[in-house]
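@channel sequence for tomorrow's demo:
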Amino acid sequence: MKRRKRTKGVFQLIRRLMEEPVKSLVFGKDFVSLVYDGTPLRDRGLVQKRQRHVGEWNRKKRKVYVDDDLNGLDRQAVILHEAIEGYVVRRYGLDVDSQAHPIAEAIEKRWFKEKGGNWRSHQMRTYWVWKKNGCK
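structure tokens (generated this afternoon):
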């Protein structure tokens, strides 16, 4: 029974984090700064040639890596996604793939649509960069 209660608490946390707004978002030349979950975040955003998973965050340092094939809103959306994903894993100890990724994707999708972007097109562009880099 304890397992079920703990799982229910995690689902409530995930739902709350998915709805949490991003405030004071600033993209600099090599950083992203924002307030999320009441916490100010600042990560270095580094663009690299071949990023195996389109974007990635460093577990030891506050760095976010993004593939150089992405531009404009697509690049910013991936940087935001990786910054949020890294934060929720570090802060709450959530699993990257099954828990943190859906949270970051929900935030990324909401932000992308607010900026007037086409979410489906963004997904296709990031998919083709991912595929180009040899992921299956």
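heads up for whoever presents: Residues 2-132 form one domain.
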